[in-house]
Write a structure and sequence with these properties.
elongated; about 25% helix; alpha/beta; single chain; 8 helices
Length: about 260
Amino acid sequence: MSLLSDRIHWCTRLATLSCPMLDWATWKQLSHLPTLLKLEIKQGYNDPPSLSKGDIVNLSFLNVTSLCFQDLYDSKDIITVMQRSQFPSLKKFSFEASYLSPEDAEQLFHALSHCKACRTLEEITICSLSEGYLVPLYSEPLTPIPHFFCFTQLRTLDLTFFNSCIYLDNDMLLQAMSTWPHIRALKIDHSGGDHSSPEVTLRELSTALGLCPELHTLRVPINLTTIDIDPDAEPIQHISLQSLALGLSEFQTADAETIARIIST
């Protein structure tokens, strides 16, 4: 780590950096690089935690536009970085973990919403990919959507949690689409489970689609057990929508023919 820090110290015009997890001294050093635009951190399976609580400082990365964390096996250090850093120019944020606990996930959502990127962030991807961690029985679903209402320039939101549930209801979807007028891709994919049932209905989905004319990809959990829209009325139309995936819980059944009559793109 000290060798990497020493090398970075001499790269005074560094624009793009892809490297293993950093210590606080190196994070602080990078925050003083005005040329740094893209930062990608890959955490190896055997990488030990590298941040000491005694070294914590507040950092500001004025010109970083892309921040990506990949192959994470222990997310706590990264969340600490996000809690202590500001990224006022950030446009792309990507976070891919093997497992992100519900507590850590909520801390990450909160930290991201407070990193001073409300007017710039366009793309958010957060993944917790290991299916080996089961959703705890009776656990509360994750609530990332309200945290992200502040990102008025959002174009892409991609949330994949194979070991947790994500809560989304009609009111939340409508507020999201009203807040994100430039949204192009909204993808919510989660494990569901016997304690999670979709809250979004076809009627409110139709209303939400009318609020986002640039949307081309939509994947959300939806309640199709009750059709709350007239299948013989004017079908749902959206001129830019190219990909539509309506997620069901494992306990739902749906009338595919009726739904096909309702939806037209």
